[in-house]
Each structure stands twice: as structure tokens, then as C-alpha cells.
Write a structure and sequence with these properties.
The structure holds two protein chains of two kinds.
Chain A lengths: L1 H26 L5 H31 L13 H8 L1 H32 L6 H8 L6 H11 L12 H8 L13 H27 L3 H9 L4 H29 L3 H6 L9 H10 L4 H31 L1
Helix pairs in contact in A: 1-2, 2-13, 3-13, 4-8, 4-10, 6-8, 8-10, 10-13, 12-13
Chain B lengths: L1 H5 L10 H25 L12 H4 L8 H8 L11 H31 L5 H11 L5 H13 L1 E3 L2 E4 L9 H24 L3 H9 L4 H30 L2 H6 L9 H8 L6 H22 L1 H12 L2
Antiparallel strand pairs in B: 1-2
Classes of the chains: A mainly alpha, B mainly alpha.
């Protein structure tokens, strides 16, 4: 198979090149050996990061002030379009809904399950089943839920779980993907379904790390149930809970696959990341697409700053 | 109500374990049903795909492997003339190098940042750490234009067109670039934690950085490297955005996940293709997940618990 051959050849060439580089550079002794080692270890990563992330990010900022083909300046026209266009308004509202609702549910449900798993016998089986959707792609998860949300005309058999349950309770099923604003929340369920396990697993580890002496001591002082959780357990896992929330915000901001697969951004479900892709690759407007990417970036900056601050605090300890 | 029950139980219990066990299992079943539904649907015959809900099919089964056969090898319809097998192979050909390259390069960089003293190493570490949450969308357009048209300042070319757009190298490279910040950060956590005495003893014995890296760091960092490699593997296998941007949708290079995304939107008999195709796509990640779950969890914890 020529395809496999190309992959194997690349890997062999890659390692041979590294091996030769290591062998030659390893022979250099004395004063020059350290700078050479530094260059060989660090430069490949730095060059790739600069060429692949840093320089393109700056160019995207420039493109956002340019026309669709990125060959003439247009000032802030692309940003003016964003403020004026009613479709972008819907996109912004949806994106904000995503970054509020999704993190609260992934982190909240994750915490609830982490606490309850701590009280469950044979916790490893439910834990890995709850965690499993994390391995499934958003496209795969979307198709799984396409069958859950499937709707047939009222006189036909309903094969979707949601329609069947609704019918069971005596209500009339609808074409769920067309029902605004419910459809956006149904898409969010797909995200929560795949990502909840992330919060659950790391919060579960944080809860287990709470020293049992502290818990027992406060139990002797009469703290039980909700009070024990609020005064002892939660403060000790708060840091982790915030990490899960922040990860949820960043993930929800970038959501693209689910919206694209389920509705294509139609029926009032569009979000920033999907619109960015459509502007660039469907409308062929690099200017508007880049301006949308810049907005995405601005929305993650508060979290970026928070992360850097907490890393700095952690490193000084 | 749960809290009320808990007040009568001693120790650190918030919920009594009976209630907790029941709720956990109820949610677990709820969480597993959608995947079950897809799995059962993928074996349904064309005749019953729309006429009967999958839970009813379980009661009087008439299942078939034909869907898998058709989806893998092609069923003659326009959307699936050759089947998804070529795309499956593409996914493997994309994912393995796109896992190995960034992990090796990131391990080297993480070692340099952790164990070679130089001015500005702290700044670099913070910069790389910050870059890990910058959205990919910020890089896509300029990177693609670099691959197809090179880089120019005015009309002066400063970098030639790489000519790798639409080639496997044109997908490996962006995946490698995008993976580096997070991989370096996570691997730094593992490698910086190795015992200092060991490194110093090796240097006293005359070992240079290359020997230390190969004989001490690599063997000790294997668990860390493995867990991050699993993440990267799943990330690349499950990716859609990079694939759509850098691999044209063709049989030549496009991965399974983007083929699957293009199958969505067909109705009726398309559902047999869709369900079997989806299950083929998620099978590999699920196998990786269940067989290497311990490493998976370790990788997750390395990055998140602070």
C-alpha cells in the first residue's frame, strides 16, 4: 500500500535524521556543547510554533482589516459588519449561551457524579461507562444523537428516543432540529454528553485527595451532609472545579463539529466557530472570517490571563 | 432529601451509599443508551431502519452485517461508490505520524525547558503555556495560504510555497504544530519532576545532554509520554476542523471523520450507511480508550489538577 509506505518512510526518515543529529552533536565537547544541545532540543518546536501559531495569529489580525481576498485594506468594515448584521447577533447570543450553559452542566454534573461515585461500590464500571463518550468524536456523537432526536411524521412510527418519550407522556413530537430555541439546547446536550466525564474524572481525583482526617474531624464537630460539603469538601476542590469550568468555556467557544453536523448552523443554531469556517471556506471571505477568529481569541483572553496568573502563583510556591 | 438521609450516617458521607449507587447507575444507563441505540441500529436491515425503533428490534431481531459490508466496500450509490475503507486507511496514515512527530519534538523541547538552564526559559515556558488555549481558528487561514502560496512581503516572496496542500504531509504538519504547546506543557510537568540527583550524577560522570536524554529521561518519562500520545492519537483521529481545512475531501487523503460528516444529511436508506459508518469511526477510539484507560486518566490528571 503506497499510503502506508509514505507514512512509514516519513517516520523512518524523521528518526534517522534525529539519530544522525544526536550522534554528530553528541561528539561536540567543551564550551559549545551546551548551546548546540539547546538548539537541537528546542529549535524544532520553537520554529514550528512560530510558523504554525504565532505568525499566523498576527496575520489573522491583519487579515481582519482586509477585503475577502486579503489584498486591500478595508479598515474596520469587517467589525462594523459584525455589529450591524442581524445574523451575527444571533450567532453571538448562541455563543454566549453555549459558554454559560455548557460549562455549568459539564462541571456541575461532573462534581455531582464525582461525589456520588465516592459512595458507590464497584465505582470503576459506571465511571468508565460515563467517561467513555470522551473518546468519541463530535461528529460520531452528533450521529449518535441524530438517531436520538430523529422525528417522523405523526402517523408513522417514531424511531427516535426523544420523540418516543414525548409521545409516551401524551405530548406531540416535533421536528426537534427545527424548533427554536430548543434546538440549540439539544445540541448542547451532545457536548455535555461527551465532555462531562472529563470534569467527573478530575473532580473525583480531587475529592479523593481530600485528607480523611479533616473530614472525620469536622464530622466529629457535627458537620454532616450539605454543611460538610459546603464548608470542607467544596473549598478543597474549588481550584479543580474552576479549572473544569474554564476548560468548558474554552471548549464550548470552539464548538464547530456538532453544529456543522447536526444543523449546518441553520435554524437559528449558528455559533462563532462555525460561522468563521463558513465565511472562509463557503463564502470565501477571509476578512470576515478572520475578524470572527479575532473575536474568538478575545473571548478566551480572560481565561488565558487567569491561567497564567495561577501558573505563576503555583511556581512561586 | 438526600442530605437529610445523610445526616443519620456517620463519617464523610454526604449521600447514603444506597441512594448514590442508585443515582449513579441510573445516570450511567442513561449515558450509555444513545451509543447502544447506534450500535443496534447499525445492524438493522434496510426494511426496518425507519419502520421500527431499535429497542423493539431487540425483541424480535432480524439483524444483518450487510450495512458494514456495504459501508466498508461500497454499495454503488453515489455517496459511497467505493466505501469508507480508503478513508479508514487515510485516518491511520494521518494519525500515526501526526502522533509520533509532535510527541517526539515536544519531549525534546520539554527536556530543554526543564533541564537546560538558559536565559528566557521561564518566559518561553509561559508563552507556550499561554498558546495552548489560543483557538486554532486564529491560525487556519494564514497557514493554509502559506502551504499553497508561500509567504510574501508586498510582492517579494520570503518563503516558497511548500506545495504540500492536499498531501499527507500537509495534514501531519499542522497537526504537529497545533499539538506542540499542550504536549510541551504536559510533558514538562512529567520531565521536570524527575530526580535532580540522577541528572547531576550523570553529568558528573561525563554524560552530555544527548546521553542524559536518551538513557535517563526517555525511559523514565515513558508513562507520561504514553498517556499524552494516547490523547494526541484520539485528538487527531476525532478531528474535523484541521481535516476539512487541510485535506481536500477526496479519497486520496481525507480521513474517516470528515467522510462521515459528509454522509450526514441523507435520509431513508442513508441511515444504514450512517449508523454503520459512525460505528466504524468510533470503534478505534473506543478500543484505545478501554484498553489504555489508565494512561488516559493519567494524562488527563497531569494537565488539570493544580
Amino acid at each position: 500500500m503506497p499510503k502506508f509506505a509514505s507514512a512509514i518512510t516519513s517516520i523512518v526518515v524523521f528518526f534517522t535524521f534525529l539519530g544522525i543529529l544526536f550522534a554528530i552533536a553528541g561528539r561536540v565537547n567543551g564550551k559549545k556543547s551546551r548551546p548546540i544541545a539547546l538548539a537541537i532540543f528546542l529549535l524544532p518546536a520553537l520554529v514550528l510554533i512560530l510558523a504554525g501559531l504565532v505568525i499566523p495569529a498576527f496575520r489573522t489580525i491583519l487579515f481582519s482589516f482586509m477585503n475577502p481576498d486579503s489584498n486591500a485594506w478595508v479598515g474596520i468594515a469587517n467589525y462594523k459588519w459584525m455589529v450591524a448584521d442581524p445574523n451575527v447577533k444571533i450567532i453571538m447570543i448562541n455563543t454566549i449561551l453555549w459558554i454559560i450553559v455548557v460549562p455549568l452542566f459539564t462541571a456541575g454534573l461532573g462534581l455531582l457524579l464525582a461525589i456520588m461515585l465516592d459512595r458507590t461500590k464497584h465505582e470503576s464500571i459506571p465511571k468508565s461507562l460515563l467517561f467513555m463518550p470522551m473518546a468519541i468524536s463530535f461528529v460520531g456523537a452528533s450521529i449518535i444523537f441524530k438517531f436520538v432526536y430523529e422525528y417522523q411524521e405523526p402517523d408513522e412510527v417514531q424511531i427516535g428516543l426523544l420523540s418516543t418519550i414525548v409521545k409516551f407522556f401524551g405530548a406531540t413530537p416535533k421536528d426537534w432540529m427545527l424548533s427554536k430555541p430548543l434546538n440549540t439546547f439539544l445540541l448542547m446536550i451532545i457536548y455535555v454528553w461527551t465532555q462531562m466525564g472529563f470534569g467527573m474524572v478530575i473532580l473525583s481525583a480531587a475529592i479523593k485527595a481530600v485528607p480523611s482526617e479533616i473530614v472525620e474531624a469536622s464530622a466529629l464537630d457535627g458537620a454532616h451532609g450539605w454543611r460538610l460539603f459546603r464548608n470542607i469538601t467544596f473549598p478543597m476542590v474549588k481550584g479543580t472545579f474552576i479549572v473544569v469550568l474554564a476548560t468548558g468555556v474554552v471548549g464550548a467557544l470552539k464548538v464547530f463539529d456538532i453544529v456543522r453536523t447536526m444543523t449546518g448552523g441553520n435554524f437559528g443554531t449558528n455559533v462563532l466557530a462555525n460561522e468563521m469556517y463558513s465565511q472562509v471556506f463557503v463564502q470565501f471571505d477571509q476578512g470576515k472570517g478572520s475578524a470572527l477568529a479575532v473575536i474568538l481569541f478575545l473571548l478566551v483572553t480572560p481565561i488565558l490571563i487567569y491561567n497564567i496568573r495561577s501558573l505563576r502563583r503555583e511556581r512561586t510556591h | 432529601m438526600a442530605a437529610k438521609v445523610a445526616e443519620h450516617t456517620p463519617g464523610r458521607k454526604i449521600f447514603s451509599s444506597k441512594i448514590a449507587t442508585t443515582v449513579v447507575w441510573a445516570i450511567t444507563i442513561l449515558w450509555t443508551i444513545p451509543t447502544m441505540g447506534l450500535f443496534v441500529t447499525s445492524f438493522k436491515t434496510d426494511k426496518y431502519i425507519l419502520g421500527e425503533a431499535w429497542w423493539n428490534s431487540l425483541l424480535h431481531p432480524h439483524f444483518t452485517f450487510a450495512n458494514y459490508h456495504n459501508v466498508l466496500l461500497g454499495d454503488g450509490t453515489e455517496s459511497l461508490s467505493t466505501g469508507v475503507l480508503p478513508y479508514f486507511i487515510n485516518s491511520i496514515v494521518i494519525t500515526i505520524p501526526a502522533t509520533i512527530f509532535p510527541i517526539v519534538i515536544a519531549t525534546m523541547a520539554a527536556y530543554a525547558l526543564a533541564w537546560i538552564n538558559f536565559r528566557g526559559s521561564d518566559f518561553l515556558f509561559f508563552a507556550i503555556f499561554a498558546l495552548q488555549i489560543v483557538p486554532l481558528q486564529m491560525s487556519l487561514v494564514p497557514l493554509l495560504s502559506l502551504f499553497t502560496g508561500g509567504a510574501h512581503i508586498g510582492s517579494i516572496p520570503v518563503f516558497p510555497a511548500l506545495g504540500i496542500a492536499g498531501d499527507f504531509a500537509g495534514i501531519w504538519l499542522p497537526h504537529t504544530m497545533f499539538a506542540l504547546p499542550l504536549a510541551i506543557y504536559l510533558l514538562h510537568n512529567f520531565i521536570a519532576g524527575l530526580p535532580r540527583d540522577l541528572m547531576e550524577a550523570a553529568h558528573v560522570d561525563g554524560a552530555n545532554h544527548f546521553m542524559v536524554f536518551r538513557r535517563i529521561v526517555l525511559p523514565l518519562a515513558v508513562p507520561g509520554i504514553a498517556s499524552i500520545a494516547i490523547f494526541q492519537f484520539l485528538w487527531v483521529w476525532n478531528d474535523l476542523l484541521v481535516a476539512l481545512t487541510f485535506a481536500s475531501g477526496t479519497e486520496e487523503v481525507a480521513p474517516l471523520n470528515s467522510k462521515l460528516a459528509s454522509l450526514v444529511g441523507q435520509y431513508g436508506s442513508g441511515y444504514t450507511q450512517l449508523s454503520a459508518g459512525a460505528f466504524i469511526t468510533i470503534a478505534i477510539p473506543l478500543i484505545v480508550f478501554f484498553s489504555l484507560q489508565r494512561y488516559f486518566v493519567r494524562g488527563l490528571l497531569a494537565g488539570s489538577v493544580k
